[in-house]
Amino acid sequence: MSLHHAYVGIGTNEGDRARNVERALAALSDFGNVVRRSSLYRTEPWGKLDQPWFLNAVVLVETELPPLPLLGALHAIEDRLGRVRGDRWGPRTIDLDLLLYDEADIDENGVQVPHPRLRERAFALVPLAEIDDRFETLRDALPASDLAGVVRVEAESDKPMLQERISSVSERVRTLARFLADAGAVRVRVTRGDEDIEIAMRSRHATQEPEAPGRPASNVSSARIDTIKAELVGIFHLSRPAPVEGDLVDADRELGYVEALGIRTPVHSMGAGRLIGMPAVDGAPVEYGQPLFLLVRG
Amino acid sequence: MIANRGEIALRINRACQELGVSTVAIFSEPDRDSLHVRQADEAFCVGPGPSARSYLNIPNIISTALITGCDAVHPGYGFLAENARFAEICGDHGLTFIGPKPRVIALMGDKASAKRVVREAGVATTPGSGVLSSVEEAYEAAESIGYPLLLKATAGGGGRGMRVVRDAGELQRAYAGATAEAEASFKDGRVYIERLIRRPRHVEVQVFGDDFGNIVHLGERDCSVQKPSHQKIVEETPAPQLSESARAALHEMALRASRHVEYTNAGTLEFLVANDEVYFMEMNTRIQVEHPVTEMVYNIDLVKEQIRIASGEPLGYTQNDLRSRGHAIECRINAEDPRNNFAPAAGTVSKLVFPGGPGIRVDTHLYAGATIPPYYDSMIAKIVAFGDTRDVAIARMERALRETLVEGVHTTIELCLEVLAAREFREGRYDIEFLPNMLASVGGLSLR
């Protein structure tokens, strides 16, 4: 009923850029379902040339939020992720731009959608055209010199280019999750040496189910939202049957567990509520204080 | 895995980077913006501010090491560095603990057992008695040890249950007082006698051993400039005004004790030196804060050596291959207020300038804008000066301290300058009473 389609541009030019994008995606899933995502693109800085290079992507988000609250939510994510690491030292960790919102043409309260400079920006149009062929014409109209500044980061060449080492399980899990999303698969298992990693994709369409009808965004924003965080460092898993966003959960429902040193420590709902976000990835490492579940109480 | 914070976490990260070893940092919530978090390849939050729940949280630290695929754990100094159980747990999970064997940590970590063990190896310890059961026994022990002496509580600490006894006439009253005070303070009235070593110097010897029985020393460090709380402020190597016979005895005793316990990796044996007599005090089974002065004069990277030795390599050199050159001094810059009984000063550093130039090294995790959390050690930087001679090193240190600017918190920079300017320090004739006396003397310190 009230599901809208929004294209969001993601840009980051500081720190572990690929990880910043992943964190932004996890945060976005608190406000909607990321139903399509472009590849990652390495782009030279736009406007101010004394900045380091960017990693860019565009995602299609299905959301119940109207344009203004969605923009507010994007700014909140920018602030939250930007604060995480040394924001005081330089460029913003993450930029989120609302590029398009349904077929809307909005120019009010400082909000302009479609994004006013979308037509000039290769770093937005190139990934956008990749996931929505309606924009291929606009992309192809860009000067060749602009297009040359936006280079797709292949899954394999991604790491060396970013000067990162896939040196840990967490990196490998993230890489696999990306592969999974790109391939449109639901489950992948990789065995190498004594290592055995299996990753499954959870449904992204929970809120479309009849028992969880879409509700006006104002209800969500005015209700109390509790974040259930990890106490232990370990591998996070969703309990089976896996909870999905939109679920109404009981007071002591076991939503997931953290596996550490061979011991599974359950994560409970700590009170009844509606599950509105699951920012942690099933099967991925979590650190102390990392948000696992977002619940609207009452 | 770097199981520490602050400058030593950065120091370990630097060694790993030069060796091409990937690193995983751990941090507490208030340390999220800390430099060691930014510079490690990966970083995991392991708990909230208080150390007991973060930097001492063994389950979360081990779990982090395992899920990130670490091979080894470097504990730094402090926190879990001398925790034999932690070293053992690392081993149980297939992680190499970068340090000595858990058995040796346990043996040398306990002061009483360490003294017993080194005596077996023929190393001198402060002459003392066993636990005394009566004042008659005390008289007997005192006769053989000699006056002046110290009565000390077995359970003691902070000077409680401790009495100085100058002659036999004072013993009876002191014995009664010490036992009563110890009973009241610790619910344990047992006391023992130790010879009072007046105005000793605190000199320590760096040792290094591998898994193949090779052990070398890397000279000594004089750490006699200590606050009344016994925290070191200025350290230097070689120790000034030390007779060559005492220096040789120190090195020889350190090697003998280390060989006796089959010591591996980096360690430090602390001695009291008075009138050229040398007494073993305790051993630190880890890398020390003041290790850089040794690195400067031996031109060696001790942390890299720790990692290399822990991975099973032999030392590859003998005592004869090791030659020290020149003189090095370290000043500890702490965020604390020397005018106010060294009260720790937490806060945000607004402006920051560190020194540079010939012969200067700065090890710090500080940056302008950094917040100093209240939970941890107050040390914020170590400034190290090297020179061909002691005079050159002192001159460099003085100009380096004057170049240094830390705004936003109180520091010990001025105090270090006062130490360097003092006649006793200039002449190299100072002992552990030097700094407490300087702080106490009216007008002796322009700070006060």
Protein traits:
heterodimer; A: 298 residues; alpha+beta; Alpha-Beta Plaits; OB fold (Dihydrolipoamide Acetyltransferase, E2P); six-stranded antiparallel β-sheet; four-stranded antiparallel β-sheet; 18 strands; 26% helix; B: 448 residues; eight-stranded antiparallel β-sheet; three-stranded antiparallel β-sheet; 15 helices; 21 strands; 35% helix; globular
Decide which structural class fits the backbone of chain A. Answer: alpha+beta
Number of strands of chain A: 18
Q: How would you sum up the global shape of chain A? A: globular
Rounded mean pLDDT of chain B is: 93
Order of strands, widest sheet of chain B: 12-11-8-9-10-13-20-18
Measured distance between first and last alpha carbons of chain B: 44 Å
How many DSSP H or I helices of chain A? Answer: 8
Can you walk me through this structure?
The complex is a heterodimer of chains A (298) and B (448). Chain A has 298 residues and is of the alpha+beta class. Helices cover 26% and strands 32% of the residues of chain A. Chain A is built from eight helices and 18 strands. In chain A, the strands form five sheets. In chain A, strands 1, 2, 3, 4, 5 and 8 form a six-stranded antiparallel sheet that branches. Chain A has a four-stranded antiparallel sheet with strand order 11-18-16-13, with no helix packed on it. In chain A, helix 1 (17-28) runs antiparallel to helix 2 (67-84). The longest helix of chain A has 18 residues, at 67-84. The relative contact order of chain A is 0.13. By secondary structure, chain B is of the alpha+beta class. Helix content of chain B is 35%, strand content 24%. Chain B has an eight-stranded antiparallel sheet, with helices on both faces. A three-stranded antiparallel sheet of chain B has the order 6-5-7, covered by helices on one side. Chain B is globular. Chain A binds chain B through residues 84-86, 88-89, 164-165, 167-171, 232-235, 260-261, 285, 287-290, and chain B through 22, 24, 29, 32-33, 37-38, 41-42, 44-48, 54, 59-64, 66-69, 93, 369.
